[in-house]
Amino acid sequence: MTTSVDIRSEDFLDRPVACLGALRASAPACPVEPESWLLITRHDLVRRILQDTAGFPTIRSKHQQPPAEVADQVAEIRAQGWPYTSALGTSNPPDHTAYRRMVNKSFTPRTLQDLEPLVRQAADDLARILPNGVEIDFQADFAEPLPVWAISRVLGLPPERSADIRRWSTAAISTIGSSPAAADWIRYEEDLLDFQRTMVGVLEASRDSDEPGLIAQLARDLADGDDSDASELPRLITLLRELVVAGNETTGKFIAEAVRTFGADPTVWERIRQDPDFAENVVEEAVRMASPTQHVIRVAADDIDLDGTVIEKGRVVMLSLASANRDEAVFPDPDVFDPDREGLRAQMAFGQGVHSCVGAGLARMESIIAMQVLAEQVERIVPTEPAGPYTRSYIIRGPLEMRATVHRRGSR
Questions:
Q1: I need a labelling partner for 109 at 20 to 30 A (CA). Which of 31, 38, 339, 404 fits?
Q2: What DSSP string describes 298-339?
Q3: What pLDDT score does 319 carry?
Q4: Is the pLDDT of residue 328 over 60?
Q5: How many whole angstroms separate alpha carbon 81 and alpha carbon 199?
């Protein structure tokens, strides 16, 4: 393990595919700078650790700490709200099992089946107004609004909250694997305080209602429980924050990145138009290559031998989903977009084991419908080169904008 990597370096953030490919070949378990972590890059090792919840539990927080110059201001803002707690992404069984049970009913196959025609109509409405032959920000005009609309529906928030959901999501991910400028910290913390206050208001207003949506369901569960448990409300707030982020942030970035990957090829769109089920393969291959959640973090519960590398108890490991999804041993020619390749479901973009993404079914449905609806209306979507800016995080990666020109069917 002579190789090491600085996961905050501009080189790593700009070229993750190339950096991870080199590490996968030379050091499948390599030290991370400036932390004393280990970065795991091989598919088999990442899969093994993700499935070993007892040996490699998740950690409490993935967020960076605020810089010293604004730490006091951040603390003052947080003191006006509710404390951050663990929820789905940062808890382990049995707590994680309880959280999962609380939200699972909103993501059942039956629930998604009922939601499907509504998502399709929303996607169709967005696609119909995409201008022809004009450069647009495809992410802002299509890729982001669709999952924001869907998670609003799942949660039971009104459509006019869409802009707030985008604002809250940006704030929530701003410190995950990234350190924003000091001045931005204050704005993000104020946005998160606004989120907390809004969610508490909605929860309280929903306690005695029979309205649909996950928030109303959680409010009724809270009302039926022991109100003396002062920790329950902060947990619900944190849980809702996770769901708001997971329900739109990564999916929106993925849809834009998928179109960047294959959008200029009219044969892909035509094949989806002729065989809508082919969109499932397209989405699975595109999410393999994009891996919007690039890395997840675990900690060794004991000294563990990992394929000849001894990981000491308490050592933090960073599991590279992005690298595992391009492991040549599992995906031949991994940098080639091939929706006909064998074994597409071996990709791990949605995680693995008990911490697999609770909203994976929703994300797949939204993405598949997006591709089907677009295929009916566009001949190709040509990305503008060079690519626009990407997130500066080693955890979540995706375009901040995706400039492209839409060429509609029948236009010349």
A1: 339
A2: EE-SS-EEETTEEEPTT-EEEEEHHHHTT-TTTSSSTTS--T
A3: 96
A4: yes
A5: 11
* Structure tokens that stand for 55 in this block: 């040996």
Which residues is 383 bridged to in the sheet?
404
Q: How far apart are CA 51 and CA 351, in angstroms?
A: 10
The amino acid present at 268, given as its one-letter code, is: V
CA 273/CA 222 separation, integer angstroms: 46
365: exposed, middle or buried (C-beta count within 10 Å: 0-12, 13-18, 19+)? buried
Residue 206 has pLDDT above 90, yes or no: no
pTM greater than 0.85 (yes/no): yes
Q: Exposed, middle or buried by CB within 10 Å (0-12, 13-18, 19+), for 120?
A: middle
CA distance 32 to 379: 44
- The tokens for 230 are 């002062």
Q: In 105-231, which ranges are E strands?
A: 135-137
CB 388 within 8 A of CB 9: no
Give pLDDT tens digits for 6-42: 999 999 999 999 999 999 988 888 999 877 899 999 9
The tokens for 231 are 């920790």
* Secondary structure letter of residue 69 according to DSSP: H
Residue 297's DSSP bridge partners are 318
Q: Is the Cβ–Cβ distance between 44 and 153 less than 8 Å?
A: no
